[in-house]
Amino acid sequence: MAAETFLARLDRVPLNRFHWRLLVVAGLGWMFDAMDVILIAFLLTPIRTEFGLDATQTGFVASAGFVGMFFGAAIAGRLADRVGRKTVFQVTLVLFSFGALLSAAAPSFETLLVARVIAGLGLGGELPVASTLVSEYAPRASRGRFIVLLESFWAYGTILAGVVALVVLPQFGWRGAFVVGALPALYVAYLRRALPESPRFLAEHGRAAEADAVVRRVEREGGGALITVAKPVAPERSVAAGGGMTTLFAPRYARRTLMLWILWFGITLTYYGIFTFLPSLLAGRGLSVVRSNEYFFISSLAQVPGYFSAAWLVERVGRRPTLVAYLIGSGIAAYLFGNSGAGTDAILFAALLSFFNLGAWGVVYTLSPEMYPTALRATGAGAAAAVGRIGGIIGPFLTPTLTASLGQSGVFALFMGLLFLTAAAVGLLSEETRGRSLEEIAPAA
């Protein structure tokens, strides 16, 4: 026990009040980010009407946020490895809130585009850094389940977006809808001030005494039964891995990076290609705008059991089989939805699509920070997310363009093929990380 590092101690602390508080504070920001992303699908029509936009300009509004998310993910990940997870964790949420408020006040189409890019910068940086921070605190035995639960706040944000579309939008318009998401997110950013820095980051940067103090704080929150009087033992540092983006393709990480980039691109393109236009696709089948929004809201409820089932499976059967199964399930559900009508079958298959697709997302966020050592963890997760945002930019343009020529059934058959290819890449290139510490998965260089 005397030779045990304080990070090894952190890995065996049972889940306690500290972990759950971290999950809620990180998850609430995640929830408001999700609400903003999904809400834009409901706001495009009134925005187009107010500013007199054509189809191309409307597509720019839908994709502007993803442009910001691309740069936000790449920049924030690198910054988090240099200046700390906590600092970036706070700044990204403030930046997102500012962008959302500017969106609400935008006097012109051009200002709205700038505002959406700013909000995207914060949102894109928020998600990979939050998952990195939480994964570095979660005990090894429940890390996968904990990250999936963090991602489950996306479902709550999606449901909240539906509520805002049904309640706030008719009363206060699209500007009021943006304000609803921006102000609570600022309060969450304030709450994050009390969180300590990741002990893994502190140890990596030679601040072993601070890291040990944070670990002891987590131990005390668990009742103090595991507190040791032995001299703190610092872990081996992985500073040699911190060479920047090019290090992601060093021999020991290249396969992991390739797998993550394919995974992120495939699941992001299909997610935004489907869910951004789900209400309008339903309306294209003859449903009223109100009824299509109701269908979207009802089907979104299936995301919650999708996340919780994935959270259970990642620690029972592992990350790889769970992710492959949920990607395949997403593909099948997409095909069935594309060939459904406008009745209860549409709700059923949209719900199945929500169940499997969002469950898969939970595992994506679990795997991403696990693939790299501490010095490279946020950089690697952020770079993968940035590649995914390229798919997020393409998706909103791809769906309406192809629907005109292929029809909804053809477009969703294409999405099924992309999801199957993504599942194959994960099955062939990924490795199982269940039950292993972060230091075992990606040892110090």
Overall description:
This protein is an all-alpha fold and 445 residues long. The protein has a single domain (6-441), classed as MFS general substrate transporter like domains (Growth Hormone, Chain: A). It has 17 helices and no strands. The longest helix is centred in the last third of the chain and has 56 residues, at 374-429. The model has no long low-confidence stretch (mean pLDDT 87).
Which SSEs are present, and which pair or pack?
Blueprint: H1 6-12, H2 17-51, H3 55-83, H4 85-105, H5 109-137, H6 143-151, H7 153-191, H8 199-204, H9 208-221, H10 254-275, H11 278-283, H12 289-300, H13 303-316, H14 319-338, H15 344-370, H16 374-429, H17 438-441
Helix pairs in contact: 1-9, 2-3, 2-5, 2-6, 2-7, 3-4, 3-5, 3-16, 4-5, 4-7, 5-6, 5-15, 5-16, 6-13, 6-15, 7-12, 10-15, 10-16, 12-15, 13-14, 13-15, 14-15, 14-16, 15-16
| Radius of gyration, taken over Cα atoms and rounded to an integer in Å | 21 Å
CATH class: Mainly Alpha
Total of helices: 17
CATH topology description: Growth Hormone, Chain: A
CATH architectural grouping? Up-down Bundle
Listing every helix as H and every strand as E from the N terminus to the C terminus, the arrangement reads: HHHHHHHHHHHHHHHHH
What is the multimeric organization of the chains shown? Answer: single chain
Q: Helical amount among residues, as a percent range? A: over 70%
Cα(first) to Cα(last) distance is 24 Å
Shape: globular
The major pleated sheet works out as: none
Going by CATH, the homologous superfamily would be MFS general substrate transporter like domains
Query: Could you say which structural class the secondary elements and strand pairing correspond to?
Result: mainly alpha
Number of domains: 1
* Low-pLDDT runs: none
Q: Quick one: how many beta strands?
A: 0
How much of the residues is beta strand, in percent? Answer: under 5%
Average pLDDT rating: 87
